[in-house]
Amino acid sequence: MTVIGYMKRSALEGVLGDLSDTLEVIAPLPSGKEGGVELGRFEKGAKVVIGPVKTMLPLKTIFLPPVEQIFRFSKSKNETMLTPSTPVTRDRVVFGALGCDIAALALIDEVFLREPVDEAYEERRTRTTIVALACEGQGPECFCASVGIDPVRPDGADVVMIPVEDGFIVETITKKGEQLGAMLQGALRDPTGPQKKAARSFKSSSRSDVDLSAPAGGWSAVWESEAWEDASARCIGCGICTVVCPTCHCFDVHDERHGNGGERFRKWDSCMAVNFTMMAHGENPRPQHRARVRQRYMHKLVYFPENHGAVACVGCGRCAVACPNRTGIGEVAARMRDQEEDSDG
Amino acid sequence: MGELMMIPLIARIRSIREVTFDTLMFEVAIEKDGKEVPFSYLPGQFAELSVFGVGESPISITSTCTRPGPVEFAVREVGLVTEAMHNMRPGDMMGIRGPLGNGFPVNEMKGKDILFIAGGIGLAPLRGLINYVLDNRSDFGAVDIVYGARAPNLLCFDWEFDTWKAAPDTRVHLTIDAPADGWKGSVGFVPAIVKELALPPGNRLAVACGPPIMIKYVLEDLAAAGYRDEDVITTLEMKMKCGVGKCGRCNIGAKYICIDGPVFRLSELKTIPSEY
Fold first, then answer.
1. Residues of B in contact with A302 (CB under 8 A)
2. How far A316 CA lies from chain B's nearest CA (Å)?
């Protein structure tokens, strides 16, 4: 980690504009009429929203787009020609990413970069430099510190910008970050002593007391937990939790035909959907709502840790904010553990 | 695999054979850039077959790698993709991604007696293994094949039965659910026939595939007969999309059926929830 300088907030849009000559620049931009913020492609003249606002959709959207063409095909009498799609056309930089979202990428990497490697995902990861915005804890829903994430200098960031005074202290972390840092030099000045001090003492207020740990004994210990009854009784099965979740990564594959050609897509899917596991002949191994609710939490809290050593939750709290019934994963995890203690006693 | 995870190769249909009224067997040659390429696989593996513009389906490979030539897939018409396949003709092109999945542990099965148990279309994944075993006959012990369907005309791959019966130390026990005109074999459900045969575990593995209700009773009966969980092998069917452990659809417990399976020993199945 190297402090490379101080950048004034007012210089940021100019810097991004200059970068957009050579890179695809992605940043949090205003969205809709109600003060929403979404990651989007920065065009010169745009205003970036850097501040205490979490994008409604997580950073995963730029690595696993909601809908993505896999290939196009065209048919002639004797041949079918396939043209694989190009995942990215230029090297990219994403500005203002938050620690929770960046940490989630490391979890998705476990799935998409294991053999056989998902080439489209890998190319997007390789060709994207991530500039984190040190996060104070964006809202009461945040609990990234509870799952071991440092929201100030998150693992996985290439560059970190730490808000001080009316600008940022810029630190580079990786080789990729140094390369980007070199492109920022024109907008940087030497930080003052107080600025450096403010960056060093920058702290997050993210909650660190949310316990997502599963009890010993694996899935079977909590399979019949009343947590699933409670959570499914409150759940309307809308699946918004999976849409806003930075670690949810399930997808569907489907084809469209246009004349003698067509295309194959993949698009986000949700284990909360009834047809997620419904087979063509009508069998469905997970037909009950309760079983689907259980699957979502078990996958994050029990199965993923068993396979990859970490819970598949980064404490962003988006699920509880988006849920019509405000169900958060922390309370479900607590209920799951209660059950286990009850049955022991 | 093709060179790219989600990009299929071309499977050109060489011939189509009727298996039952709703099941066709496609013999396909695999092509890349217009040239035929080799396709190596293990018994029990599967592939994602696609009809371009309609979609993809996971289908088990029913041929055996011991017989070079076209790769065979038996496809029952149950949904949109399989319906579109049934409308295809020799010369038509499907997409193919594979081989996928783990396949049967053929090396660990060597030297063992094998009891094959199948119901209906469940014979499709076992047929490749049966032919593999018979093509390497001296590597394996006694072979017994119990196979049943609801009616005689629903028995799949009936052209194989005489060859199998004629193989050394190999017995085929066919059964149908209810008496039918002209049927001279056993009548009764597959689990009942297995029970009646009462083949002792000893050095024997049981390999079963069929409808869930058949599997349920077969597993219970084998356990009661003293078969150890690690000596009972089955292959699962699940909804799949990517086939390579990413899309999440076939996740059960900490396993993905597409990459950790579809072949499992009963001892492994007992480590995951029974959501299959």
1. 254
2. 22
Whether residues A71 and B34 touch (CB distance < 8 A) is answered with no
3-state helix, strand and coil shares in percent for chain A, rounded to the nearest 5: 35, 20, 40
With CB atoms and an 8 Å threshold, state whether B247 touches A252. Answer: yes
Q: Is A271 on the interface with B (CB under 8 A)?
A: yes
Q: How many CB atoms lie within 10 A of CB B192?
A: 15
Q: Do A280 and B54 touch (CB under 8 A)?
A: no
Which stretches within chain A are classed as H helix? 12-19, 99-112, 119-126, 175-184, 193-200, 218-222, 226-234, 240-244, 289-298, 304-308, 318-322, 329-344
Q: Which residues pair with A93 in a beta bridge?
A: A25, A129
| CATH level 3 topology of B106-235 | Rossmann fold (3.40.50)
DSSP-derived letter for residue B7 is: -
CB contact under 8 Å between B251 and A117, yes or no, is no
Q: What pLDDT is stored for residue A1 in this prediction?
A: 82
Helices (H) and strands (E) in chain B, counts: 8, 16
CATH assignment of B9-100, given 2.40.30.10, 2.30.170.40, 3.30.720.120, 3.10.50.40?
A: 2.40.30.10
Model confidence pLDDT, tens digit, residues A26-39: 999 999 878 889 99
Residue A32: which residues within 8 A CB-CB, separation 6 or more? Answer: none
User: Taking CB atoms and an 8 Å cut-off, how many pairs form between chains A and B?
Assistant: 123
Span B92-118, pLDDT tens digits: 999 999 999 999 999 999 999 999 999
